[in-house]
Fold these 4 entries.
Entry 1:
Amino acid sequence: MQAYRGMNREEFEKGVTLLWAIWNNRNNEVKEGRRNTVQGTLEFALTYWEEYKRNQVQNVYRGERTDQKWEQPPLVTVKLNFDGAWQASTLTGGIGVVARDKDGEVL
């Protein structure tokens, strides 16, 4: 589905944020019995998007990637490592998450 064709970047970002807010509202209703109104969901999405835009880093570091060694967390801690990438020209991206215990075992 190519529904985003013809949208500018801002419209696309707002649309994706709205879809996420609708999904989040549905999860809150199913899991917690809390439901927001349509207007409340829309306001939440737009407020979230505006805050996101205000906090964007304008000068992204494009230097060489450095390898970092995994460090053992304390005994009762789960360590989460995140990474992500975004290709602005195609409006595509991806993220990865790994959760490890104190021994470095993937959970």
Entry 2:
Amino acid sequence: MSGVVQLASQVFHVNNFPHHLFSEVAESKIFLLHSTPKHALLQAASASSAADYYGQRVDAKTKQKRRRIAGIDQDELLDPTLLADPDSCFCEFKGVMIHHKVCDADPQAHNPLENQAPSQLANQTKTIGFPMILLHGFGASVFSWNRVMKPLAQVTGSKVLAFDRPAFGLTSRVNFLKQSSPSNQDTRPLNPYSMAFSVLATLGFIDLLAADKAILVGHSAGSIVAVNSYFEAPERVAALILVAPAILAPLSVCKVAKGNRLLKVEGNQLGRDDQIQEAQMMKRTANMLNSLYKKALSAILRSAFAVMLVRMIIDRFGIAAIRNAWHDSSQITDHVLYGYTKPLRTKGWDRALVEYTAAMLTDSTSESKLPLVKRLDEISCPVLIITGDNDRLVPSWNAERLSRAIPGSCFEVIKHCGHLPHEERVEEFLTIVEKFLQKVFSGPEKQGMQGAS
């Protein structure tokens, strides 16, 4: 009985029960004879401990939820170099350590198409001779290309390089907004999150590969980098391959008879003079609004609110966006999810994503150039456009319209495929790319490719 009294004393003591009253009850034996039996006291003590434990668990879960973004622990973020793979490489470019990987052709590798007809095999034995640079899309990284890098190296007979653009993958995060100041815009370094930086980095990697030209393969937003790189140095680009290109295709404009002196724009007929006057007024208004918009946006993006918003968006929609990019999301493995969320373990990933967004939305360097959509008909190198028939992010009809805007471009649709043909339909993707390259660089149509429709 003394053990029961002792246990009860502890329970009541924990609950601030007056000790002298408990002693009186115990001494009069009322407690021992008529109060709670031993197993009930044990249950009471257990319940008290369980309540404390439950409270601790709730607090721990709340803290854990706050510290995880898209399932990735945010308590111990690492330097990108510590997350590198065995085949990862890093090089310094304008103050940024750029993560990249390189695959070379294996002369001993088995050719999966070696059993084809001799006439086809003759073309396939010819190497393309140009290296290839792979440019990932928004939110992706070198990981996105891991299933096609080696096969593409076999197709080209040369090196294939993929690199992480700043703000993505394992490329170092630079706090550009903090380092730069609006008062010294003439002397501050090039914004690593700008399109101009990505273009110069792309051309720099052509030099790194010791090549005069390279084939640029861009996926989604990476296609914008590829096309801009072409316009920056067309003599350095052997061909463009645009995969699910996130480039807004131009709307078709039909001209009516010359004598009418009218233009038909999206179904509306406007007099030429009225159209010019309206366009000038709209341009002045747009420039004024654009200036105000950029100032306001810059102030917002320099705040802590922007970082918090980015973290919230990635946490809530990041995994869903990955699944939505596939035609068949059941094919997405844990390995794929890990590859896409791994960069969330790097220091400063959230701030870098904010700065990338700011650079894309407030870029002033492109204002002196014609919009990309108005220069597409100037592209003269071979172009291949690949899209999935069930791309929910960049519709296939936009890719088809884009192919009509680029003279002589080839257009291919992969069935039962979403936004990631090079991940979801690897074999079909490689077959299309190989046939295109063989046709352009090794086939009989090599000289007349640009005249084809």
Entry 3:
Amino acid sequence: MADTTSEIQWIGHLLCDMGIVLSHTPILYCDNIYAIALTNDPVHKSKMKHVEVYVHFTREKVKEGALTIQFVPTVAQLADLFTKGLCSPQHSWLRSSLVLGTQQQAEGGCIGN
């Protein structure tokens, strides 16, 4: 999460330099409930023997309001489309969630036809 938090910050600064203002706080989707709890609630920190620096960095950005972390169920995790071998129905559902074009285009149709 810290790497993605850092990337979100970088993109935000880049957009600001280009004169583009974000209309809302960026959302980082995560399927790990415990990781979300660590970034939102420092009470959980007491249960850990060692908290890495990257957890503090992400927690700080959430506290500043520069980032919102939201839970996404594992079955709806779009990254799995690119990183895991999925069954056909799950693959089709995630592919359709990308909204890259029409269903005909997703199935190999040409735009010009």
Entry 4:
Amino acid sequence: MYSCLMDLDAATTIFEGMKHKDVISWTTMMGLLVNLEYATDALELFYKMKGSEVSYDAIVVMNLVSACAILGDLRKGKQTHAQAVVCGFVSELPLVNSIMAMYSKCGDLDSSRTLFDQSNKKSLVSWAAMISGYVQNGFSREALNLFFKVRLEGYYHPDSVMLMSALTASCDIAAFELCLQLHCCAFEAGFSSYRSVQNTLISAYSKCGNIDLAYFVFKEMGYLKDVVSWNAIINGHGINGHGEIALALFHEMRKGTEDADSATYLSILNACSHAGLIYDALIIFNKMVEDDKIRPSQEHYGCIIDSLARAGCLSHASVFVSQLGIGPNAWRALLSGCVLHGNVELAEFAARKVFELEPRESDQVVILSNVYASVGRFQDAEALRSGMQKQALIKNPGVSLLCRNPYDDG
């Protein structure tokens, strides 16, 4: 009962007070820890279970696999997979689906796809897990190809989870027409009123640049709006250059019943940064720390540094980064600000800091060469680029996309 209520303290008290624990007792406790994402504790409990000489079943192994996925521990995940093979559990389809998902979350798509292809019995969950794995790892086109294979060959009718993965893949490649088609699919399948689907639609339309449709979906949600909905629409306006509207939406949210979370603040700080609303960004950052007691992440700090740098307050931004001792992205934000304002000395200092933290990355070299070029020091810019080639540093290629939809969902 307490595990269903997610009451860890009560469940632990009862579990530890049991004189005779069977496999169900151990499995229930492990499942609760996994659901609460206490993955390390779940693994430790499994080792205690092995020490008690209670035989474990496929459900226990599923919990182990889920714990490895949460931790992103591929080595331990492979060991658990091998254990499942030895114990003869690989005929259990739910376990196979869990192992596929684990490999995807650990970034080993080859193993996930091999397992998927080798599976004689595939459920809707199997297809959804593979499609989601492609999306999580940035292979949006592969995800969409698999999605349309399910649809066109009539294996299953896509569920809401699969549809959300397809929408996410579509917006990743800015396929607006495809998002419209998938929205129609949601209506047809009866998923259009699902909160999770609507939230995904808001993000998808926003990332495709159609903020009007995103806002239409947001308004249509009515009482179904949650913090994710507000985050999506605030972020949508921010990435589309409507910082003032994003700010107004943030204040509207604060007046309502939804409490802002870390993602909310990241979205509005990013919107303020790109819109040049430096004072609003600083006030909101202070409110986040002082009023809501939310601990800032590197991304939050990065937004503030970017705001200061864009506004030309480079000395303040530099002091902010130096005092906090945060990661390379903050220094990159400062370096980008130096490009806007042609501050060569500070750009050189920031580039050195990025290089110390990430010596194999090329971004700082490219940005610094742009700073040199912006002030007419073309020989220095060329020397940096030549140095990149000698050190075998590869510049991340730019990507452009024509708004033509190569897919048709039939």
